[in-house]
Write a structure and sequence with these properties.
single chain, alpha+beta, 2 domains, 4-stranded antiparallel β-sheet, 6 helices, 6 strands, globular
């Protein structure tokens, strides 16, 4: 459909590159053939923020991963891709990273977390506008933050018994780990694929125990 929502090139490219780093070029080729996404074998999406990737391509890729690796294995690969997005799209890009580090240098850890999450929400709204205003809300509770995403491309049009926004969860995990220097538990506690009104992520303020 011509009016189908799309996602950005960079996220899809990082997803595919993460898969290639995990299963090798031959493995990625097999996955793309299985998912009938041969168009990405010869040429990955460009490394930019253009909104050009049909959501059906993402669904086909995730469905193929689930069938080949099982739900647990596919979830782990998606989560890893989200963390990798932080490294490539935030840290290596430099601009947002430098500004955040300079602004948060002397702040307590919880304030640094909030600053990074709010900055991510702000930048994400610019990259992928939505009819929802605001599209993303950051709420702070006593021992955790809630990220409420009303228009995630990961859960768009899907039906599932369990949460599906694993790339998003991995991105939040990587972002908080980068800004604090320590891992924190991130869990999707509500998902539109399960019939909820929004995708809701719980980010613990406590550092994750080894």
């Amino acid at each position: 459909m011509s009016d189908e929502r799309k996602m950005d090139n960079l996220t899809m490219r990082i997803f595919l590159e993460t898969l290639e780093n995990t299963v090798g070029p031959g493995g990625l080729k097999s996955i793309l053939n299985f998912a009938r996404l041969q168009k990405y074998i010869e040429e990955l999406p460009p490394q930019n923020d253009g909104i050009e990737i049909p959501l059906q391509d993402v669904r086909s890729l995730v469905a193929g991963l689930t069938e080949l690796f099982g739900e647990k294995g596919a979830r782990a690969l998606q989560f890893r891709a989200g963390r990798e997005f932080v490294r490539v799209g935030v840290v290596e890009a430099g601009t947002m990273a430098k500004a955040l580090l300079a602004a948060s240098h002397l702040l307590p850890e919880n304030r640094r977390m909030r600053l990074a999450l709010e900055k991510y929400a702000e930048e994400s709204e610019k990259r992928l506008p939505s009819e929802h205003r605001p599209r993303i809300e950051v709420r702070e509770e006593e021992d955790h933050f809630l990220i409420i995403e009303k228009s995630s491309t990961e859960s768009e049009g899907l039906v599932s018994q369990s949460p599906v926004c694993n790339i998003y969860a991995g991105l939040l995990y990587g972002l908080v780990e980068w800004i604090t220097g320590h891992p924190h538990t991130v869990e999707e506690i509500e998902c539109r694929a399960q019939g909820c009104n929004a995708d809701v992520f719980r980010v613990s303020k406590a550092r994750k125990l080894a």
